[in-house]
Amino acid sequence: MSEYTPIEILLIEDDPGDVLLTREAFDDHKLRNRLVVFGDGREALCYLQRRAPYADATPPDLILLDLNLPGLDGRELLAALAADPLLARIPVVVLTNSLAERDILRSRALRVTDYVAKPVDFYRLIEVVQRVEQFALSVVREP
């Protein structure tokens, strides 16, 4: 049996209901990953760039990103991630209500790992979490 090392997952989501569903799905699947949540794109970028008050923040191994955020929206955040060589290496899964082709194409152009329409119910969310778990198991940490 291989040993599983929990990873750091950053959820950037402004809808408290979606945050709660994500936490419940992680609990239900007994994922031991650490889930850090931000509801604002600007604050999440400060965390990712380790600016005050997040100078001691642990860089995430995976980002779950909603595209429609207050402050700095997910599209702008993706562009900022892609422009930073260190942040560009972090896998990003876009979770959104937007099925607009331009959002999908832009996300793919910014090297998004996956693009998933937000689940409409708990069981759909569990499917998404199972996909996230596959990402978690495939992330290779640097020493």
From TrEMBL:
Residues bearing the modification 4-aspartylphosphate: 66
Keywords: Phosphoprotein
Keyword Transcription annotated: no
Matching InterPro entries: CheY-like_superfamily (IPR011006), Sig_transdc_resp-reg_receiver (IPR001789), TCS_response_regulator (IPR052893)
GO biological process per UniProt: phosphorelay signal transduction system
PROSITE patterns per UniProt: RESPONSE_REGULATORY
Chain ranges of the Response regulatory domain: 8-133
Name of this chain's protein: Two-component system response regulator
Source organism: Spirilliplanes yamanashiensis
